[in-house]
Specification:
With 224 residues, the chain is an all-alpha fold. It has 8 helices and no strands. Helix content is 82%, strand content 0%.
Length: 224
């Protein structure tokens, strides 16, 4: 079942919980489709289903911040052996190449890798644990984590919500335009057919009158 269709079948409170939980687990380091869940829920909230986009954005932000913080604590405690273990268990997401790419980003950008990592699927999974492994000062991590979480989760919710509202309004206007065009086409067709019928009726009447005039002409006189 499509994610949005599934979310539409559960209560609003469950949607908030699922969004917060999935994003939190993804931020913790577990490869889950957090962005897909958030976009689907935000789009659903724009369709008047009882889901409040503000509450949704707050739940997504809280899940992102808490998940990243737990990931940071696990990474700081587990260190390099944790990355080696993850690489063996999830080679598709935690391969040596992925880890090396994330490490280069951290070396180049520092705390900003955590901030911008929110908008990049690979770094979104790595940011918390890797920041802990690399012993980034927690205050730097927390600052980037909170700011990135608010901008990514809250911003994504707001953008998708308003896009959904505008799209719905546009589709409604489009349906009215379609209805007006259908009515105009129907009226035009009716008028054209009516005009043709009048012309045919006039031609028939003219032909009948012509025949009547011919039959009414006097017979030519005959000579005795």
């Amino acid at each position: 079942m499509h994610v949005q269709e599934w979310l539409d079948t559960v209560p609003a409170a469950a949607v908030y919980a699922v969004v917060g939980l999935v994003i939190g687990l993804e931020s913790l380091g577990i490869p889950l489709p957090g962005e897909i869940i958030l976009v689907s829920a935000a789009l659903l909230s724009s369709q008047h289903t009882g889901i409040d986009p503000i509450v949704l954005g707050v739940c997504a932000t809280v899940g992102a911040v808490i998940g990243d913080s737990i990931g940071y604590a696990i990474g700081r405690r587990g260190g390099r052996p944790l990355l080696a273990w993850l690489s063996g268990k999830f080679p598709g997401h935690f391969s040596d190449g992925h880890i090396a790419t994330a490490e280069r980003s951290f070396e180049k950008w520092g705390m900003w890798a955590v901030f911008f990592g929110r908008f990049i699927a690979l770094l979104r999974i790595f940011a918390g644990p890797l920041a802990g492994v690399l012993r980034m000062p927690y205050w730097k991590f927390l600052t980037a984590n909170v700011l990135g979480g608010i901008l990514w989760a809250g911003g994504t919710t707001a953008v998708i919500y308003y896009v959904g509202v505008v799209a719905e309004a546009w589709l409604k206007r489009f349906s009215w335009v379609g209805l007006v065009l259908a009515v105009l086409i129907g009226l035009t067709s009716m008028l054209v057919l009516k005009r043709k019928a009048k012309k045919a009726q006039a031609a028939t009447a003219a032909g009948a009158a012509s025949d009547g005039d011919t039959s009414a002409e006097p017979a030519p006189a005959t000579r005795d």
